[in-house]
Amino acid sequence: MTEIFNPKANLVFCRKYQQELPKLPNPPFPNAKGEEIQNTVSAKAWGEWIELQTMLINEKHLSMVDKAAKQFIAEQRELFLDNGDYEKPAGYTPKA
């Protein structure tokens, strides 16, 4: 059986940018949430989230073994990806 090249196969309708963009090559988590993110968030938006997440963890001195810290990061992730009012580190300016 011959596979037909589908240029849209590597695209996803990004919930943050509301347009089709390249998708993540793999789910970021090994669970249903990871698959949901891979299917609804572009690689660009995910990369921006990872940068912001790192800044939040560092600025707030969060320990990712702490359940409350994990919950805070999960909440901020959803707000960021849905263009909500997420917490911004001091001096943070989103990329244009």
Write a brief structural summary.
This protein has 96 residues and is mainly alpha-helical. The chain has helices spanning 32-40, 43-59, 67-81, and strands spanning 11-14, 19-22.
Could you walk me through the main structural features you see in this protein, from its secondary elements to its overall organization?
The protein contains 3 helices and 2 strands; from the N terminus they run ββααα. The termini are far apart. The mean pLDDT is 91. The chain has a two-stranded antiparallel ribbon. It is mainly alpha-helical. The radius of gyration is 15 Å and the shape is globular. The protein has a single domain, classed as YggX-like, CATH 1.10.3880. This is Probable Fe(2+)-trafficking protein.
Topology:
Elements: E1 11-14, E2 19-22, H1 32-40, H2 43-59, H3 67-81
Antiparallel strand pairs: 1-2
Q: What percent of residues adopt helix (DSSP H or I)?
A: 40-55%
Per CATH, which architecture?
Orthogonal Bundle
SS summary, helix count:
3
Major sheet: arrangement of strands: 1-2
Assign the structural class, choosing from mainly alpha, mainly beta, alpha/beta, alpha+beta, or little secondary structure. mainly alpha
Low-confidence stretches: none
Key traits:
96 residues, mainly alpha, YggX-like, two-stranded antiparallel ribbon, iron, Fe_traffick_prot_YggX_sf, Probable Fe(2+)-trafficking protein, iron ion binding
